[in-house]
């Protein structure tokens, strides 16, 4: 069993942080997306969408999509629960995970992919107007998060979950995307200080 990734990308980092929280050790194989390794036949056969990471199981099964990989390990190692506990907790965690993925990480990624010069060859075509259009979406979500986090320690409730992992990775990805977080977000700052100081954040 191994995970094939480019460790520089945000989605593989989500999986690494998740596994670090569960203290799961696994083999990693690196590829270089700037060299178009993800478009070569061997990897494309594993994931026709040509995206990292991919979990390659010993029987030849390939599982792609970061949250699907995390779900696989959550089922194998349910403690600590990072995808919620009980019907309500699991539903709430899934709700906030989706919100963080679609309304924070995705627009940060779109800003980076459509504006950063390093992505010129990878993102065809680069549409600068689309990149700029996503900046306010990121900032709007941060303001909503700041409000939500004024009433609870973590994004989905009282416990650290996959929603916090996705949001932390998104906030960190804002730096290469050149999106300024802005001031007067005290609850968000408190949350970020706590989650980014966890040992898993360095995975």
What can you tell me about this protein's structure?
The protein has helices at 10-21, 41-46, 66-76, 86-115, 128-148, 162-177, 186-196, and strands spanning 2-5, 27-30, 54-56, 62-64. It is an alpha+beta fold and 203 residues long. It has 2 domains: 2-76, 3-Layer(aba) Sandwich (Glutaredoxin), CATH 3.40.30; 86-202, Up-down Bundle (Glutathione S-transferase Yfyf (Class Pi), Chain A, domain 2), CATH 1.20.1050. It has a 4-stranded mixed beta sheet, with helices on one face. Strand 1, helix 1 and strand 2 form a beta-alpha-beta unit. Helix 1 packs antiparallel against helix 6 (162-177) and helix 5 (128-148) crosses helix 7 (186-196). The longest helix is centred in the middle third of the chain and has 30 residues, at 86-115. The relative contact order is 0.14. The model has no long low-confidence stretch (mean pLDDT 96).
């Amino acid at each position: 069993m191994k995970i094939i990734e480019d460790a520089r990308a945000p989605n593989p980092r989500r999986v690494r942080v998740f596994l670090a929280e569960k203290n799961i050790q696994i083999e990693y194989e690196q590829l270089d997306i700037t060299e178009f390794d993800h478009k070569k036949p061997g990897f494309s056969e594993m994931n026709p969408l040509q995206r990292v990471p991919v979990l390659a199981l010993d029987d030849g099964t390939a599982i792609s999509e970061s949250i699907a990989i995390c779900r696989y390990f959550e089922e194998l190692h349910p403690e600590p629960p990072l995808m919620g506990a009980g019907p309500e907790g699991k539903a709430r965690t899934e709700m906030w995970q989706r919100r963080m993925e679609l309304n924070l990480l995705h627009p940060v990624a779109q800003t980076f992919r459509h504006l950063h010069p390093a992505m010129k060859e990878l993102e065809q075509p680069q549409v600068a107007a689309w990149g700029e259009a996503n900046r306010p979406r990121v900032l709007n979500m941060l303001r909503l998060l700041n409000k939500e986090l004024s009433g609870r320690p973590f994004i989905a409730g009282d416990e650290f979950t996959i929603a916090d992992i996705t949001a932390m990775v998104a906030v960190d990805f804002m730096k290469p995307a050149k999106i300024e977080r802005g001031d007067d977000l005290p609850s968000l700052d408190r949350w970020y200080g706590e989650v980014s100081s966890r040992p898993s954040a360095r995975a």
